[in-house]
Amino acid sequence: MMKNELIFIIILLLFLQTGCKKDFLDQRPNLAQVTPTTLADCQALLDDYSRMNAGYPDHGEAASDSYYFTDAVYESLPDANNTAENKNNYVWHPQGEHVAQWLQGYQVVYNANLVLSTLEKLSTTDPNYKMIRGAALFFRAFAYYSLAQLFCKPYTVGTAGTDLGIPIRVTPNPQELSSRGTVKQIYDRITADLNEAVSLLPIEVKIKARPSKAAAYGALARTYLSMEDYANAGKMADECLKLQSTLIDYNVTSNPATSTTVNSSATGPSFMRFNAEVIFQAVTIYGTLAPGMVRIDPALYDSYSATDRRKGVFFGEGMEWNGVPNGIIGFRGNYDGTESSGLFMGLATNEIYLIRGECYARAGNTRLAMNDLNTLMAKRMVPPYINRTASSANNALVQILTERRKELVFRTLRWTDLRRLNKDPAFAVTLRRDMNTISYTPLQPNDPRYTLLIPTREVIDLTGMEQNPR
Fold first, then answer.
1. Average model confidence (pLDDT) across the chain
2. Do the Cβ atoms of 143 and 126 come closer than 8 Å?
3. Does the predicted model carry a pTM greater than 0.90?
4. Band of the pLDDT at 328, cuts 50, 70, 90?
5. In sequence order, which ranges of 292-384 are alpha helices (DSSP H)?
6. CA angle 37-41-46, nearest 5°?
7. Residue 325, number of CB atoms within 10 A of its CB
8. 439-454 tens-digit pLDDT
9. Which helix (H) or strand (E) holds 362?
10. C-alpha–C-alpha distance, residues 294 and 290, integer Å
């Protein structure tokens, strides 16, 4: 048991600001220090875009294998929280810490719990009550899922009941005691919140920064996939696609991009924010993955064929950073519609098609698996597109996982995929970083460093919580 809940963390959360605020949603007042008393207050707190939609962890993506830094860029990485947090994360330093990643996630949890606590004191006759409760449950689950991908071991059926989880807070009361619990307990909390949210959220929302019923189904599909519960992941993906299934045809271009087209220009974002594929809008902390800083992994870039529209849509030669061309091939496929280092990590239909297709393949249904893959790829390849075939369900799975790697690049999903797929020798990979003539210790499959350290000074020393092993 912890001596006390994260009092110090809550204080920090209340004052923590995310950088690079954007758009009209950021014009809302600072509600972090306001105690809500009405449904309108609760809705306003959930609509605080900079806190609820724009500060999710990115260190999994930053530790993954889609890119590399040059020596000069690595040396110039800004320190975070007066530590070498960003540099340590890039090279998987065994003692590297991740303060902002932890704090930002728990800020969302705190705000969601504050709304849920307020709702318990209000009348349930208002038609907006259910929608607001469903949204708060969704945000809490979405934040917990993001935190679990970094600070918990991957979900494994045989050990989830004993593997260390993260603190589960269901009230905003900082005096309540809690412990880390288990991985199973945190995933049970996530799926319970999302299943209840499904029954409460509307089919349509005014803006995609608010969760919808399709978003809750999509989040469940993503969660069950990470748990390797492919039966439930497939069911939830199917329910999601019944409500929202639009795919953008990457062959249809315009400058600037619209919700249903891509930008074919040589530099700048390829997509607009809230485009037609987006189900729920969320972005990461503004970290180190700026387009002008990262160099795309050559093997990844070369894996896109000349007739694959994604090669030109996701990547651009001569990318600019702060208005200055740097002559490199950079990433411009951010579904947030910006060139910032805050990456889209919300939910979109292309991910859901790939989840359902993978689940069909794992269930032995080759035909339906390839139907989903072909539905997606027909919107990505230069026409005329000829449907792919698979010699077996396993061959379909290999094809789908190959395209998942290329389709969902820089979505924060790669880290979770590495964690779950590394359990299978057929898909396991070893990551390497080489800089300044130094070869850092490779990240082997199932390495303990796939579970990040909980901040020591801000959490472990304060609470007595057990640290992740090294």
1. 90
2. no
3. yes
4. confident
5. 298-302, 310-314, 349-362, 366-377
6. 130
7. 12
8. 899 999 999 999 999 9
9. helix 349-362
10. 6
